[in-house]
Amino acid sequence: MKMRISEILESLRISMGVNGAQWYLADTADPHASEYVSPHYAEREFLSGFTGSAGTLLVGIETALLWTDGRYYVQAEKELKDSGITLMRSGDAGVLSLEQYIEKYFASGDTLFLDGKLISAEKGLRLKKALSSAGCKIKIGRNLTHVIWKDRPADSAEEIRVLPPELCGCDYKQKLKDLKDALAEAGAEACVLCALDEQMWLFNLRGRDIPCNPVAYAYTVVTKQKVSLYAKERAVNDELCAFARDEDITLRPYEDFYKDLTDLHFEGAVLLDPKSCNFLILRILQRNGNRTVCADSPVKAAKAVKNEKEQEWIRKVYLEDSAVLTRFLRYVKEQGAGQDELSLARRLDEMRLSLADCSDLSFSTISAFGPNAAMMHYEATEEHSDVLKEGGFYLVDSGGQYDGGTTDVTRTLAIGEVPAELKKQFTRVCAGMLALQNAVFLSGAAGRNLDILARQPVWEMAMDYKCGTGHGVGYMLNVHEGPQNIRTKLQPGQTDAELLPGMLVSDEPGVYVAGSHGVRIENILLVQHKTENSDGEFLCFEPLTWVPVDLDAIDAEALKPHEREWLNAYHAKVREKLMPLLRDPEDAAFLHRATREI
Amino acid sequence: MKMRISEILESLRISMGVNGAQWYLADTADPHASEYVSPHYAEREFLSGFTGSAGTLLVGIETALLWTDGRYYVQAEKELKDSGITLMRSGDAGVLSLEQYIEKYFASGDTLFLDGKLISAEKGLRLKKALSSAGCKIKIGRNLTHVIWKDRPADSAEEIRVLPPELCGCDYKQKLKDLKDALAEAGAEACVLCALDEQMWLFNLRGRDIPCNPVAYAYTVVTKQKVSLYAKERAVNDELCAFARDEDITLRPYEDFYKDLTDLHFEGAVLLDPKSCNFLILRILQRNGNRTVCADSPVKAAKAVKNEKEQEWIRKVYLEDSAVLTRFLRYVKEQGAGQDELSLARRLDEMRLSLADCSDLSFSTISAFGPNAAMMHYEATEEHSDVLKEGGFYLVDSGGQYDGGTTDVTRTLAIGEVPAELKKQFTRVCAGMLALQNAVFLSGAAGRNLDILARQPVWEMAMDYKCGTGHGVGYMLNVHEGPQNIRTKLQPGQTDAELLPGMLVSDEPGVYVAGSHGVRIENILLVQHKTENSDGEFLCFEPLTWVPVDLDAIDAEALKPHEREWLNAYHAKVREKLMPLLRDPEDAAFLHRATREI
Question: Relative to the CA of B506, which of A206, B238, B297, B549 has its CA 20 to 30 Å away?
Fold first, then answer.
């Protein structure tokens, strides 16, 4: 029988007492600051019952609080019910941040206990500062949850795959050389890489340790003389050994990393990215007297710009993915009301995974009808899967991991005839999506400059979506990646990255009305060079997603003439690009109808 | 006879040698970090011959460089010709910043000499950091230019005016209380105010020490117990003495400020704004062991939000100013080609200054035809004043200091029939101006979020204007004020201020084609509450400027339908609001024609 959250927290509080701590912090984290964590690291979920992909739990002797962002308000409210945990809506007016809470409510002399591997160096430093100004202490030690967590899932160590050159476009030698140049530029001689996707990218490897994220647990230390890759022994196969031998990479056991790091003394400065390196790594390096340069990882920036070969693969894969989704949309529209969310999600997942080059989903499919779609990251389950009804919106946000790219796409469909007000909202969201997709901008612009193009039509209705408009997308890697993003404001620790040709960003405005409905339309865009003159270089977007936007949900009157032209032009291209991929004449007929000029 | 720039620089270099300095820095600055400086402080202009309102001159033993921004490239190129001074285009790709130049070109051991009063603390700290990383020293001392500058204009000390309550809307007592609250909030007990407009605002005083800026030279020290105002003795009249006595303000001579400051020891932390306090003040405070809090001045933030009374006055004054400009535009359009820039500027200035409540211009009128309009801050002079010709654009950017507000407005007029390409550019600039004016945005948005609304139509033509879209505007104060602005990127030291109800911003996109033409259309906007719901508070803009946009320069085909509606709606309101102010039937007829529906 499952333990109740209140029981779990009581057990934790006993451990806290034994360790002389008044507070315990559990972030959503593994030792690599991964956005999505494997079940083995789902500590915050185990302690709180909240299943969202982002949230920070703070447990005190008498109190417990969970911070999460706008995507999860509705879901967190539901899941935290009866847990005794207070929901803190990050970023809402008047809501204290974790640091502000510490400064306001911690008593002088209090101790906060945390697992230093399970928090990023950046967050750790921010906490330390807040604690110190409140006269409190931080204690870094072994994880306190581990002993309570009887059925904790085992850690994963799947075999690592060496990517064939035809999928890469840039070999490890070149990437290592570029990295060393970037380190020199930043005044460093060495670096520690902790983010899993960065290491996968650098070595052209892929793993399967985190569901939907083709990464393997690893640490990397690059010095002038030597490159050491720490990987789990079960994950290392002959192929990887041969690659490491050929490329002069020292393979070391994952478990030995912290011991090795403690013994290491770097000659020059060592660069680490405080956003992806965990707090323990920073503390070990500093304790040993190493000179550290805290800076954005050069690998992160390099990885975000896709090379020509990658771009070719991505175009091909997105087209294939668009065809699958379009076939699925036809199914949903034709079956109409009566279907249930979970069966639909499973059908779409099977359609994707039946493709020869699709090995996994890129995240758990969001298949949500009516009020469920107001929860941005809703997931239908065996226990709860609603049935589609006439007059509502069905939202599906999904993607796959392909040999040749990671996809992500959202469409919202009208089931039967939907009320005029919903149509209007859908139409304005569509206008926002198209406005961003058609933007022309000067090189140097960041996502913050562009965000309003997608958001303005929503703001004009006196509505807002409490999340960013767009995120970067990995290449056969994580579906969310930085440094680029399209947001109104930066969140703490986020940087204002310029949009560079070769970067991918999602374009996904929406409206979310709690208890009623949700609309999101998402295309993935590739930043492209447009023209250059004495005023500078101008950039634009190439859409990668080619899926019809449901015209049954469009109120043509609510489109400005140029927006209507954008939509018709997009649909004409969808038809042109997708038709050759649809063999079934009924699919073709659907596409024809779905992309008609309005 | 005027000394040549090369001779001046040679004399300066001798002084530098005597002082053991290899480098000398002259910023555009007075001791109060004023944007516009009085002739007495025009050191950078004296040394370089460059007359723009922004620029930093660095003089070395063999070299001299001047950094200025995009508004002044064309003008600076012209004025620096034959001076031996290299123009550094700030912000252009590949152009080193001053700090980067220091790090790259200064030899280890070099000394940079500067007048610590004539550079802001923030710039001083940045310089110090760059110098220290280049192994160089900074030497703060008496101004080196003073001895060379034989005909240096005398310093100004005009009488200070105490504003009548009916012009204020908020009295000094309340403002002081708010300031003390803000200081406590920032963890400080005292503050030093150096910015002149902040002091004028706090005390409800006005001066006349800087042309077009109704400010008086002053320093203010606020502690828990005492408020000291340092003013020039000649500026202090009976009225000010009585006010100071009533309000318990200690009046001290301006000249004694640095001596007093050196002797002062503050009980708690003292707040100073490094952007407006000069470097010497910071050094004195720190040398004396005072704890300093470097933060944005709370007065700056408070001053930017206009109270209800101020808003009433501003509306009235902007309408009056709009009527004057409209009458002037009629004159220009009717007279057409053949007039000269300087005469036109003088006519407009006279028209404004003949109004009973207009005491000064808010900046030197920009009256520019053809290629001259490509220089954003061009000023026609006796020596150079071009004649308007058929087929070109005439740009006039001007404003007044009124009892009840500071105005700023730009219009561009077609003289005769202009080429289609110019019309198209004008039309797209107009579309950008209208898009920003009609924006709806969520509270919390900053100017950086909104900038693209005005700039997108210009970017779509693969053009860009190398300046911000908008700036704050003072109330009976400086025509440029912060903290708000509307820009793509922040400049060093600029903060990302949220737009708050009650703030003014200018909305002035443009195109500038060197050697050919310039277009700028500028309205001033007041941030207003629009509506509030569970998604937050939504804001919008109330236009304050009511002046026709020249329809002869509009290519109706280049307007999207909703843009045409915006323009027609704006013109209908211009007509409605302005008509009662125009007594001359021919002015009324002009307004009628100029605001016709298209």
Answer: B297
